[in-house]
Automatic annotation (TrEMBL):
Name this polypeptide is given: Class B sortase
Entry keywords, A to Z: Membrane, Transmembrane, Transmembrane helix
Key word Membrane present: yes
Parts of the chain that traverse the membrane: 7-25
Keyword Cell division found: no
Lineage, broadest ranks: Bacteria, Bacillati, Bacillota, Tissierellia, Tissierellales
Length: 234
């Protein structure tokens, strides 16, 4: 009985500590997100992206979803995945980081992977809401996302999505290089098998494919990931 009481007290203490942490960090998170949103709030043309690159050379573009309005962020390209994991565009510490393409790619490359954090504190931040695209009803309403670069306005049709535990599952979902067409097709067949509903589309691998990756919010710092994959259709 004493052990049960101690566990109960520990659980309550942990919950209170979490509430205090959220209460302390929420204003800072709001401020960090506002700063990122401000960077792209006036980006409406390809020329705007080009001008933004003069200040931030790593800028690739701006990503947004019509169905997930909280996802409206700059995207950078980097050869070091740690650069923007917990830093803002000026290189200063930022718990949210910046969504980034890794490894760095040419804009017209066939496959890219974009990484971003996921966490909730009164509202969803960064790529938290990607999990909604694992629901067929949500998917059917608006299966698209968009990336604006200095050269193009890109529209992506979501062609797959799933959750994966990277500690237990060795599927190389974040593949960005394929030796041949057969390898691409095998990768996509695996994506289709893992997607919780059927998407009636045969991917044209002549088009660019972008994979969006974030963590789940149920295990902070854990190995579970949400993966959403889109094909450029314009």
């Amino acid at each position: 009985m004493k052990r049960i009481n101690n566990l109960f007290i520990f659980s309550i203490s942990l919950f209170i500590a979490l509430l205090i942490f959220i209460w302390i960090t929420t204003p800072k998170i709001h401020k960090e997100e506002a700063k990122l949103n401000e960077v792209v709030e006036n980006v409406t043309t390809n020329e705007d992206v080009k001008n933004l690159k003069t200040k931030y050379p790593d800028i690739y573009g701006k990503i947004h979803f019509n169905s997930l309005p909280n996802i409206n962020y700059p995207v950078v390209m980097t050869d070091n995945p740690k650069t923007y994991l917990y830093s803002d565009l000026d290189g200063k510490y930022n718990g949210m980081g910046v969504p980034f393409v890794y490894p760095k790619k040419e804009e017209n490359s066939d496959f890219k992977v974009v990484y971003a954090h996921a966490f909730t504190s009164k509202k969803p931040y960064m790529f938290t809401d990607l999990y909604k695209y694992l629901d067929i009803d949500f998917y059917n309403k608006d299966p698209f996302f968009y990336i604006k670069t200095e050269h193009a306005d890109k529209k992506y049709l979501i062609i797959g999505g799933f959750q994966i535990d990277t500690a237990k599952d060795k599927f190389y979902f974040h593949k960005d290089f394929f030796r041949n067409e057969d390898e691409k097709q095998r990768w996509y067949e695996e994506v289709k098998k893992r997607t919780p509903f059927k998407i009636d589309r045969q991917v044209d691998f002549e088009n660019e494919v972008v994979t969006l990756v974030t963590c789940t919010t149920d295990t902070v710092g854990g190995s579970k990931r949400i993966v959403v994959i889109g094909e450029n259709i314009n």
